[in-house]
Amino acid sequence: MISIRIRYIGFHPYVFPEEMSFPVGSSAGDIFTVLAETVGVDYDVFLYEHVFLLDGVRLEEGVFLRPESRELMIFTMSMGG
Amino acid sequence: MNGFNGKMLFVDLTNGTTQVETFDEKFAQTYVGGYGFGARILLERMPAGADPLGPDSMLGFVTGPTNATGPLFGGRYTVVHKSPVTGGWNDANSGGFFGPELKRAGFDAIFFTGISEKPVYLWIKDGEVELRDASHLWGQDCKEVWETLKQELDPRVRVATIGSAGENLLLSSNIINDGHRAAGRGGCGAVMGSKKLKAIAVRGTGAIEVADKDTILSVNQVISSTLADPPAPLAGYLNGNKKWGTTSLTYNSALSGDSPVKNWGGSGIVDFGEQRAAIFKPEVGDQYLTSHYGCAQCPMRCGAEYRVDTGKWPLGDTERPEYETAAAYGCNCLNDDFEAVMKCNEICNRAGIDTITGGSIVAWVMECYDNGVLTKEELDGIEANWGNAEAIVALTEKIAAAEGCGKIIGNGQLWAANYYGKGHEYLTTASGIELGMHDPRMPGVDGYIRPFQYDPTPGRHVKGGDNRTPLSDPNRGNADVAKTAGTEILNTSGMCLLGGAALPPNATNNFVGAVLGFDFTPELSLTTGRRIWMLRHAFNLREGITRDKMDIAPRIAGNPPIATGPNAGIVREPEKAGDLFFEAMGCDLKTGMPKREVLEQLGGLEIAIEQLGL
Of A23, B107, B325, B592, which is the most buried if we count CB atoms within 10 A? Predict the structure, then answer.
């Protein structure tokens, strides 16, 4: 398990812990599932609404958590305005 | 009749004459209002190939059925004309109070033709119409014009006007009503200026009948309840908009990949950075807040009045810059000076400049300057380094004054690149017009890539379309058409897109049906929305703007891809998205020409069949 710093930049009233632990090798889908459960939002809705950057690189299918991973940024996709 | 006065005013500025024409319920039910009415009228009455700034050009101000009839969020009117920027169809809508006031003054639409010998303004008061000399208004800015006419005519008069940009026929010019609400895009200010029409002043006390008040009230109650206590999925968005308007999104968008950065060539999180983006956190502006502002019939009140008494640019009373303005003059120019954004917003509102185009021009100039394509000498001594707040303000002031380089760059990126004979590689335009501040390379969705390139008004973030269904999904084309049709109905009805999240299902259709007095089913709404889109599209086809001539700057679709950040590596497929859309619309994939039988099935398109020779 490694501890990842979580940063949320968005307008939904979602509250994430400052740090969360995941097994090394977790897939993007594994991480999304835990995050969606954490804020109590349907997985598909949660995924659709957000963009994820793991240490500055987009977290998406085919990306896995590495031992050196440190920070996950979560952005709400804001369309309109 | 229900929902409208049933009257359109036609003004010939060359001869100084006016004529009132009537329309009936069937016309309203067929074309709804706004640009539905506008495209129907202009397709019939404006000659093909007319110079947008010439005497045959028509300029319309058109209300919708929800204006002055009670539906919440129903306060927007639409300006229609042929764009001097794209050479094709243009519509631009605006909030404030002008549209509903025009309707209460007795007219549902005004269409201007011709060119006046001297500056004039149109004064309408409760059905009485008069063209008046505007010599004393010519040269006044948009706020001064409103103040002058309030003193001269009526303290409650509502005014739509041009500023210096429109007077000087700059293609970045817009039309401002109520002092700071903008019909922004497509160069409408230049069309108005070319007619020597400085302003329209309206005052009305009339009432518009509606067919079914109870349904309007019941839908309004649902909207009010939603806004008072938004359900969880909407709470952040709606509460943010209630408190801070569209600026509630700016900080998030500057970093998430939604906002374009560095003239659409950079990444917010990498090139702009969290620290600099922090000046766009919504609470930063609270220190300037004096009051909240809402348009007619709006329960959200997303606007705000500011007062700035200190700093580099003490503006006094001003307005909170909208998201589009903040993104265009902010992260797209790598500018982290919020005071400069407020200053540019004020310059644009007074001069009547579209802030999306204005900020996009400055970003293009900065990229050209950074790469040695434009020099300090060509920019009147302005050192246009990325993020140079003083330079951003100076360039905007040049445009507002139509002075020096401002006379050139004030006509937009493409016009300026053609004038200088360079800088085309840094254009971020679609069919010649700058783009709304939403990057289609953002992960997960297509964003606006299809409507940016292929809507009859290219480059808009308020048009189209489905962007969630993957291109590989066989239903993508139909889904795009369906959502596009819904947007056509919302826009032409006079409703505000920003309120969309607070609307219950089918609300706009229910409003339109209740106001006009007919069963506006979802199926009928889909057909009607497609019909209205087809009218705008037919206008372009008649002008020779076939699908293959509608382009978009390659970098907008990710060619080459962004190297870093949320949008890294993403390449969009506007051609494929366009294929799916045009096929579902029943149009030829190469030219976009619709099949005659499609137009016949949609109905109400005899004028398009005739004009396109189908």
Answer: B325
Q: How far apart are CA B525 and CA B479, in angstroms?
A: 14
Percent of chain A with pLDDT over 70: 95
Q: What is the pLDDT of residue B232?
A: 78
The span from the CA of B337 to the CA of B325, in Å, is 13
ipTM summary value = 0.83
- Tell me if B252 sits within 8 A of A78, measured CB to CB: yes
Confirm or reject CATH 1.10.260.40 for domain B214-434, answering yes or no: no
Q: Does B354 touch chain A (CB under 8 A)?
A: no
CATH of region B7-203, choose from 3.40.50.10420, 3.60.9.10, 3.20.20.60, 3.30.1360.60: 3.60.9.10
B49-64 confidence digits (pLDDT tens): 999 999 999 999 999 9
Q: How far apart are CA B101 and CA B481, in angstroms?
A: 33
Per-residue pLDDT at B250 exceeds 60: yes
Any idea how long chain B is? 614
CA pair distance B466, B448, nearest whole angstrom: 9
Reduced to 3 states (helix: H, G, I; strand: E, B; else coil), residue B382 is: coil
CA distance B562 to B585: 32
Q: List where CATH 1.10.599.10 sits in chain B.
A: 449-612
Domain(s) labelled CATH 3.60.9.10 in chain B stretch across 7-203
Q: Both tokens of residue B421?
A: 């004979």
Tell me which residue in A10, A48, A79 faces B438 most closely, judged by beta carbons.
A79
Residues of A in contact with B236 (CB under 8 A): 10-14, 76
pLDDT tens track for B423-435:
999 999 999 999 9
* Domain over B449-612 is classified CATH 1.10.599.10: yes
Mark B187-198 as b/e (b = at least 16 C-beta within 10 Å).
bbbbbbbbbbbb
> Tokens 């700071």 label which residue?
B180
- Among B253, B435, B460, B483, the residue to mutate for chain A (most A Cβ within 10 A): B253
Measured N-to-C along each axis, helices B522-542 and B574-585 cross at an angle, to the nearest 10 degrees, of 110
CA distance from start to end of chain A: 40
CB atoms A56 and B249 under 8 Å = no
Q: Which residues pair with B62 in a beta bridge?
A: B78, B109
The arrangement of secondary structure in A2-76, i.e. its CATH architecture, is Roll (3.10)
pLDDT in tens, B533-551: 999 999 999 999 999 999 9
